[in-house]
Predict the structure.
Amino acid sequence: MLCAALLLAPLAALAGDTQYWSYSYRNVDVTAAGNGVYAVNLARYCVRLDGMLRRILGIDNSELPPVHIYALPQARVRQLLGDEDLVSYRISDAGVTVLVSNVPGAESDYWGAYFGYTAALLETDDRLRGPDWYSLGLPLVFASTKYHGDHAQLGTVERGYARTLGQGSQMIPLRSFLSMKREDIYGNEATRTIYDAEAWGLAHEIFVEGWRRAEFTRYLQLLRQGSTEADAFAGAFKVSYEQLDKDFFYALRQRVFVYNLDAPDPDAAGAAAELLAGEDLKARLDRLTKVYGK
């Protein structure tokens, strides 16, 4: 009964004694439970990540959609998504809404925000859209970004995925994997675990290691132009799926490369984060509930 009551309570009423902060920088607006420094870092780190992704992926357009990041306690995330460990983004005419838990992840306090921001970036630019493995793999690769002063490290190895890929005999053959829909295997935890690790591994090899990047770039272009998966593969690669499996398996076992990029903090810090309370907090949380239809 207590759990049911919690889930049915209005979101704004759940704020309790938790402090909520707001901070806006460039195209990113943050609503975060925790403290002001956390809210500031969420916005500014995502803006810095955006700049690095544009260099890595060759994005040259200057238009950025408004991004509204909500980093809320796990109980609030569970109320809206049914699972406190999920990261969600929604795209509308008003921009992008990213919803994450404010609980630190295994690799980073900002893992969920980086994942959601990168995933939304791919979805809001027609030139960057791609199949499921790509739309999942790239955000997984760059979600573990870490900042060290004016430098950043991107594409670090996620140990859980690396261990899964170390059991190479269980990998999904690329002939099936490249066209597979994650939603079709969502109920099969074992297959989903392998799929997620393989999506991370393939994206890492292509976009960090540079393995067959020109061929995969052509492959993705053909898919965006409406080619079937088989036709896109034939138009981009001069090897069979089976040979590409062998090459991919071999590439995964080579020395790992990561990006170490200059990522200076952008211009002046500007205003500090603002403590949210009363009607201001209620209005923000109400907007979030409308986005998720609850």
Residues 1-15 have pLDDT under 50 and may be disordered. Strands lie at 20-25, 28-33, 67-72, 88-92, 95-101, 146-148, 151-154, 259-262, 274-276. The chain is about 45% helix and 15% strand.
